[in-house]
């Protein structure tokens, strides 16, 4: 008995893995996390928001012989409660089989042409701006060098800006990015303007801080048509 925990990728249905698609096709039930495109699960979809106890629902169905897939946004191991959920399922005698996905922390900056590492920048750090219990990120946890990729930052943007400016250059490049199969939105500027740049965004969004923001890769994925595109450009010019 097992539940397949499958990473659905960063929001574009075409960015899920081949194995993930095969398991969905073979599944009897596909539990969708809140941010997963509904079209991935099709008629087998059960939104997790409709379940009072998602782990119990998946465990009971797996024990009754049904093939259960839990589709997680991005990659299940990145702020996806993977350890906790698999531990709960094991108490039901149900195993977890994990299928990695493309994390939005890596995919979204790349899709906008922002490299996370480049000559002279040898590391990147993925952070969540809000931890369990609504405790916000502290400057003590923020590296002073390398690229930063920050998730779940919009709700605490003022606090986040203050903490970042304690350890990072106010003229450092920052990008606020949102990507899904239907719309793309970006605001690019300097760290000192982070709160203004984030205005108009709704969760989820990825915030990138670092040299790569100012050294965009001269390529792009296939551009959407104008009626599909939502793109916000900051009034501030990089380097001002």
TrEMBL record:
Residues 2-181 form the Tetrapyrrole methylase domain. Keywords: Methyltransferase, Porphyrin biosynthesis, S-adenosyl-L-methionine, Transferase. Belongs to the precorrin methyltransferase family. GO terms for biological process: methylation; siroheme biosynthetic process. Its EC number is 2.1.1.107. This is uroporphyrinogen-III C-methyltransferase. Pfam families: TP_methylase. InterPro entries: 4pyrrol_Mease, 4pyrrol_Methylase_sf, 4pyrrole_Mease_sub1, 4pyrrole_Mease_sub2, Siro_Cobalamin_biosynth, Uropor_MeTrfase_CS. Transmembrane segments: none annotated. GO terms for molecular function: uroporphyrin-III C-methyltransferase activity.
């Amino acid at each position: 008995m097992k539940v397949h925990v499958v990473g659905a990728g960063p929001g574009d249905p075409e960015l899920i893995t081949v194995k993930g698609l095969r398991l969905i096709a073979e599944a009897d039930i596909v539990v969708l996390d809140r941010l997963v495109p509904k079209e991935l699960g099709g008629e087998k979809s059960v939104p997790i928001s409709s379940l009072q106890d998602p782990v119990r629902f998946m465990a009971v169905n797996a024990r009754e012989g049904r093939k259960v897939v839990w589709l997680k946004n991005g990659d299940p191991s990145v702020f996806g409660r993977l350890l906790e959920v698999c531990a709960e399922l094991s108490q039901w005698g149900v195993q977890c089989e994990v299928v990695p996905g493309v994390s939005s922390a890596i995919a979204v900056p790349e899709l906008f042409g922002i490299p996370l590492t480049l000559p002279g920048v040898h590391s990147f750090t993925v952070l969540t701006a809000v931890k369990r219990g609504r405790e916000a990120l502290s400057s003590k946890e923020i590296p002073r060098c390398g690229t930063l990729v920050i998730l779940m930052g919009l709700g605490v943007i003022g606090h986040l800006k203050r903490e970042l400016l304690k350890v990072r250059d106010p003229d450092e490049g920052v990008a606020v990015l949102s990507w899904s199969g239907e719309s793309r939105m970006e605001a690019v500027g300097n760290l000192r303007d982070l709160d203004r740049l984030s205005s108009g965004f709704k969760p989820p969004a990825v915030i990138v801080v670092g040299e790569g923001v100012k050294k965009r890769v001269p390529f792009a994925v296939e551009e959407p048509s104008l009626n599909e595109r939502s793109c916000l450009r900051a009034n501030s010019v990089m380097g001002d």
